[in-house]
Amino acid sequence: xxxxxxxxxxxxxxxxxxxxxxxxxxxxxxxxxxxxxxxxxxxxxxxxxxxxxxxxxxxxxxxxxxxxxxxxxxxxxxxxxxxxxxxxxxxxxxxxxxxxxxxxxxxxxxxxxxxxxxxxxxxxxxxxxxxxxxxxxxxxxxxxxxxxxxxxxxxxxxxxxxxxxxxxxxxxxxxxxxxxxxxxxxxxxxxxxxxxxxxxxxxxxxxxxxxxxxxxxxxxxxxxxxxxxxxxxxxxxxx
Length: 239
Fold this sequence. Notes:
The chain is an alpha/beta fold. The protein has helices at 2-5, 12-24, 27-48, 64-76, 111-114, 118-129, 142-145, 168-178, 203-214, and strands spanning 54-58, 88-92, 135-139, 158-163, 187-190, 217-225, 229-237.
């Protein structure tokens, strides 16, 4: 290796500098930057494929990803003006997880880490959307806020579904709610796919694999990002 790269491979201070820099960056920053890049890719792919439908986000928290998706959609209107027809729906309790069952418990998934303010998030999103983009934030735990179904909210098709609600129960409820809206070309983003020590029998991974198996939905893996996020696209949905 040293013979190929010569003296550069021996400059340990450069390697130490790079290592120190990367090690010192907050993992949340790394994850969010890659997540923003991923959202831009997915909105771009939806635009060039002319996929109609709405954006559904489950687990809005402070609204950063939600706002970023709106910005991406606005920018891509230069490529496909129909992207401005996208409606944005965000679902969150805005008060954390509530009481978790034993299977959903996780050392990081606590109310203390994930409680936020609905009015503050709503104001933040409104500043980004302006008057051109329609959006709606639906508060409440999913067991209540999703029980009336997607059509009751006027959602007929989804082009992007972003599951960022962390636990099996919440992801299962979000995916079941989204089922009638899913079509060929719908992107499903799973932000915490490798939580619970990588187990496929817990968390978002369990909910996703159960979902596509039960409803005979064929998907293709697109890419991974950040500290455990992954993206699939629906290639076929059984009627």
